[in-house]
Design brief:
Stationary-phase Survival Protein Sure Homolog, Chain: A; nine-stranded mixed sheet; SurE-like_Pase/nucleotidase
Length: about 240
């Protein structure tokens, strides 16, 4: 098995290192192809006909690494079509610094990468973790528990390859993957997004409404019950 590892926080992100360490713990071959810089909120976007520079980078957790100056989905296209990466059996994306849940999940570049891989016939798993501090300072969060939690979920999903083609995983720092809940994507908004006219940016904050949730929602499991959420998607 050969794994493609990518993310939307950039190839230097601590979450990418945690995911690479998890892959190494499984003893499988892998290649990292990740954005040169943070690309949060890029979804499945990639632009055809626009130059995207790439270069070999310092290996991440001992895994050969390529940085691409584009989105996570573009990194997947690069890995699957450039001829520089061995044939890919599974795409892993993350571990994102902050959870990706609910009705606006498709905005996530972390999830967008596995959607791009799935569109090209490659299964994938998107990993995100709960916020562990200031949004702009993930290097200062506690990442020590994340590789083990990721390895635990990854081993579980690889042992049950039937019944899913893509998966969205949100790691809770409370159960740390030991007591995951299998969920569906909530129809509710997890983040409240507003346009800040003065600063010219979209501002996001956690702001779901309890009355919009269902018992099997990813938001319910993760935010209300403090459990790791695993949402499995079958291939049509």
């Amino acid at each position: 098995m050969h794994l493609l590892i990518t993310n939307d926080d950039g190839y230097r992100a601590p979450g990418l290192r945690a995911l690479a360490e998890s892959a190494r713990a499984l003893g499988v071959d892998a290649t990292v192809v990740a954005p040169s810089a943070p690309m949060s909120g890029a979804g499945q976007s990639r632009r055809s006909g626009v130059a995207a520079d790439w270069a070999w980078a310092e290996p991440v957790a001992g895994i050969p690494t390529i940085q691409v100056n584009s989105t996570p989905a573009a990194c997947v296209v690069f890995a699957l079509t450039s001829g520089l990466v061995a044939p890919v059996d599974l795409c892993l994306s993350g571990v994102n610094a902050g959870e990706n849940l609910g009705a606006t999940l498709n905005v996530s570049g972390t999830y967008g990468a596995v959607r791009e891989a799935a569109a090209r016939g490659v299964p994938g798993i998107a990993f995100s973790r709960e916020f562990g501090g200031p949004w702009a300072e993930p290097e200062g969060w506690d990442w020590t528990w994340v590789p083990d939690a990721t390895s635990r979920i990854l081993a579980t999903l690889l042992a049950a390859r039937t019944g899913w083609f893509t998966a969205n995983v949100n790691l809770s720092g409370t159960d740390r993957g030991a007591d995951p809940a299998y969920t569906r994507i909530s129809r509710a908004l997890y983040y409240t997004d507003t346009y800040d006219l003065a600063r010219g940016i979209i501002r996001s904050s956690i702001g779901y409404r309890l009355e919009d949730l269902a018992p099997d929602d990813d938001i319910t499991a993760f935010a209300e019950h403090k459990r790791t959420s695993i949402t499995l998607v079958r291939r049509d």
